[in-house]
Design brief:
With 111 residues, the protein is mostly beta strands. Helix content is 0%, strand content 54%. The protein contains no helices and eleven strands. The strands form two sheets. Strands 2, 4, 5, 6, 9, 10 and 11 form a seven-stranded mixed beta sheet that branches. A hairpin with a 5-residue loop joins β5 (45-51) and β6 (57-59). The chain is globular and about 40 Å long. The N and C termini lie far apart (40 Å). The mean pLDDT is 97.
Length: 111
């Protein structure tokens, strides 16, 4: 079955960087459209970024220019490089394939 395991979260300060990883298994990763979502405290789930099978990347406005999504088909893994982090980026981050999400990884940005 589809398995998604996020890692790389942590506690950082404003302006710092983090790289999240999502290791996948159970499906044909190289042909799959993958996404990152986040859920900020007290807020609904929010789409952050997507990457298509052929590498086309899209971002929500609030992270454009700061976050970079990528994929490594040899490792069945997607990444989210997050730079210039802000307190409002504090959230649980999830990777997703269609309606399936992982368990999430917590990112906390202190001011």
């Amino acid at each position: 079955q589809v398995q998604l395991v996020e890692s790389g979260g942590g506690l950082v300060h404003t302006g710092d960087s983090l790289r999240l990883s999502c290791a996948t298994s159970g499906f044909d990763f190289s042909t799959s459209y993958m996404r990152w979502f986040r859920q900020r405290p007290g807020k609904e789930l929010e789409w952050v970024s997507s990457i298509s099978a052929d590498g086309i990347r899209t971002y929500t406005t609030s992270v454009k220019g700061r976050f970079d999504i990528s994929r490594d088909n040899a490792k069945n893994t997607i990444y989210l490089q997050m730079n210039d982090l802000k307190p409002e980026d504090t959230a649980v981050y999830y990777c997703a394939k269609q309606s399936t999400r992982g368990q999430g990884t917590q990112v906390t940005v202190s001011s």
